[in-house]
Amino acid sequence: MSRQSSPIVLDPAAGDADAEHRLLRAQGPAARIDILGVPAWSVTDPFLLKELLTSPDVSKDGRRHWPGFDAALESWPLALWVAATNMFTAYGGDHRRLRRIIAPAFSARRITALRPVVEEIATRLADDLEATPAGAVADLRERYAVPLPIAVIGRLMGVPAERRAEFRALVDGVFDTLLSPEEAASNTQALYAMLDELIAAKRADPGDDLASALITMRDEDGGSALAEEELRDTLLLMINAGYETTVNLIDQAVTTLLIRPEQLVHVRAGRAGWADVVEETLRHEPPVKHLPLRFAVRDIPLPDGRTIREGEAILASYAAANRHPDWHGSPDDFDVTRLTKDHLAFGHGIHFCLGAALARLEGEIALRVLLDRFPDAELAGDEQGLRPLPSLISNGHRALPVRLRP
Question: TM segments (predicted)?
């Protein structure tokens, strides 16, 4: 393998993500990259990535461990990804404290209790799709994959139904890596303004929702457990993570099954279940391609003799790692009968996604309801006609045109 001579500049529009991931893997366990002007290491070896994700030598706190933090706040379009004050960017004791506060909201009992809610929402959306005439094309991302997670997280967090479309547009902006620094900063400002309005409304009139519970806890203990900034950024994290990633999971699962109908035959014949489809989708097309950023607390030697220096940024390249040839046989094949579908779509270690069980529940129900209702659905056009989202983070399509009844 030739030594990498210059950083790989990641394509902010993700024009050909698979080719880019192959290029990154070809550089060894990690590759030097440029992510929207910021130098970093993209880690694509799944075994090294797991090691780093559980190492105290790797931090998510840019304020403490990244010399480039102040410059990023001024001019980096992804500044929000490192500047928010919540468990996503916390390190050590701060992370453990914040995670303990949030974890009960995603207990197995609470997720199970949400099943009828998700069933009701998916059924209602399928009912709406019934009005689509035979032969007509429906955009299933816009009419199914998007509204289902928005409705679920909206109910969970107490976001009023009439404000969910606004939240959706602003969250989309967080993942859009074609925005200029000025556009990204404006989007962040508008998103925080909406969160402040939500917090004020819940303080004035608390409801039976997670936002109200967090606000009440914070106010009653005087902020000793959760500061006001942490409260706001925790709500930001839960709304962002609870919406965008699940949309992409549903989008990619439906897309892949329609492109590869033999995989749906396995489900129909009982050789695989909807849970298998969800897991293979998470492995093959994870909702998040790259997750910025982590930082080296001290020098980290790599298996090939290179070194990630203290203070350097690290990018967890989940999509490239999931298809690493040393992890899975025929990694580029989508196979719902694959016995081992291990993946890093939800992260690994102490930062493993708290909402993973909810995302899996939504994915399984969404697929079953949709494809039981419309068993003859087919993609309108070919795979090449699908355009990726303009994001090196978010892994979905701009639209998912489908004929529900050919």
Answer: none
Instruction: Strands of 269-317 (E only): list them.
Output: 291-296, 300-301, 307-308, 313-316
- Cα end-to-end span (Å), the chain: 49
pLDDT digits (tens, 9 = 90+) for 293-331: 999 999 999 999 999 999 999 999 999 999 999 999 999
pTM of the predicted structure, to 2 decimals:
0.95
Question: Which residues, in sequence order, are CB contacts of 286 under 8 Å at separation 6+?
Answer: 318, 319, 322, 343, 344, 345, 395
| Residues 236, 43: Cα–Cα separation, whole Å | 27
pLDDT in tens, 359-373: 999 999 999 999 999
Looking at domain 8-403, its CATH superfamily turns out to be Cytochrome P450 (1.10.630.10)
Q: Cα torsion at 244, 77, 88, 26 (round to 10°)?
A: 80
Helix H or strand E segment including 58: strand 58-59
Domain residue limits, the chain: 8-403
How far is C-alpha 396 from the chain's CA centre?
10
Buried b vs exposed e over 172-211: b needs ≥16 C-beta within 10 Å? bbbbbbebebeebbebbeebbebbeebbebbeeeeeebbb
The mean per-residue pLDDT over the stretch 212-224 comes to: 86
The enclosing H or E element of 142 equals: none
Residue 394 DSSP class: B
Angle at which helix 228-259 crosses helix 274-284, to 10 degrees, equals: 110
Q: What is the DSSP letter of 224?
A: S
Q: Which residues contact residue 131 at a Cβ distance below 8 angstroms, ignoring those fewer than 6 apart?
A: none
> Strands, E, within 106-173: which ranges?
137-139
DSSP code at position 397? B
Backbone phi and psi for residue 127, each to the nearest 5 degrees, phi listed first:
-60, -45
Given pLDDT bands bounded at 50, 70 and 90, which one contains residue 4? Answer: low
